[in-house]
Amino acid sequence: MSTVLVAHPSPDLYGSDRMLLESVDGLREAGHRVVVTVPRPGPLLAELAARGVRTAVIDVPVLRKSLLSPPGLLRFAAGTLRALPAVFGLLRRERPAAVYVNTVTIPLWFAAARLTGRPVLGHVHEAEEGVPRPVRAALALPLLLAATVVVNSRASGAALDVVPGLRRKVRLLYNGVPGPAADLPAPAGTARLVLVGRLSPRKGTDVAVDAVALLRAEGRDVTLDLAGSVFPGYEWYEERLRAQVAAHGLGDAVRFLGFVSSVWEAHAAGDVVLVPSRVEPFGNTAVEGQLAGRPVVVSGTQGLVEIVEHGKTGLVVPPGDPAALAGALRTLLDDPAYAAELAAAGREEARRRFDPARYRAEMAEAVAALAR
């Protein structure tokens, strides 16, 4: 039985974290012993423990936008140096047949694996836009150390074109997204909107709030559930959102639920699922909305347009446009039969294209090619 060491940047249970669990399940089904390392404790560890997976918490710094400044990069470099003994110690103890790095934001693991002679698979869930080309190239450079680079969408793959030579290593593997244990009840028709995901400018949470304000100004009794929390360091964004809600007089219409352990409970309470992201390399939340049997409205950006076909499996609107989002919601709320038609087609397509068993088998195959 060969060991696969998986390095992951988060201990939480959002989209990429849930995909990690699918990857781990696929590796274990293929007969591998799996060890997962994360930078700090969190709810993901309990899910891994329930699977009998060994975990190691090592405070490896994660490269986020908030660190892309001279002081931030100095902190990142200092944290990397502090983490080196623990990283190399884990590699020496476990002697993995392969190292699977589940992001581009923890570059130390690519370098450490190669320095200890371990083959590396990089799994890219990011597709940065709106940052200078040199920064995007710097983020992608560690992938040159990987033998194989798996991307979760064509958008993620295209973002790697900033580094010559990476394309030949790239393999497209769409996420496999598990659905609810049983079909959810039909929407209650209460005009409740649901947005599951981090509270983040990237996720367009503010756009959803503005769209609700527009609809309520028309006299529509629309409400919005925000199921998610902020990344550490982004508390300012939640404060800004709450101020935005108060300024629109939406205190009774917008609920901040925080992190929810079951996305299906959140979706069961809603009629329409929103994914108004400005940047979204894939969009697990859109697929989950489809699997929940709800009509979805997404931004026409990156991986979301690879998931949703406008007018057939959901509605697509321009990113960052509250009026367009409100217009799409108006269409669904005014025509329940059309909303139900989109929801049914979306669920069927999501089950076909984003099957977890297919994903687990293909991911295990990609890792096995390195571990031989």
UniProtKB/TrEMBL annotation:
Superkingdom, natural source: Bacteria
Any idea where the Glycosyl transferase family domain is? 187-348
Q: Which keywords does this Swiss-Prot/TrEMBL entry list?
A: Glycosyltransferase, Transferase
> Which Gene3D superfamilies does the protein's record reference?
Glycogen Phosphorylase B
| Segments forming domain Glycosyltransferase subfamily 4-like N-terminal | 15-176
Asked if the record carries the keyword Glycosyltransferase, the reply is yes
Q: Which Pfam families match?
A: Glyco_trans_4_4 (PF13579), Glycos_transf_1 (PF00534)
Q: Name one GO molecular function term.
A: glycosyltransferase activity
Stated name of the protein? Glycosyl transferase, group 1
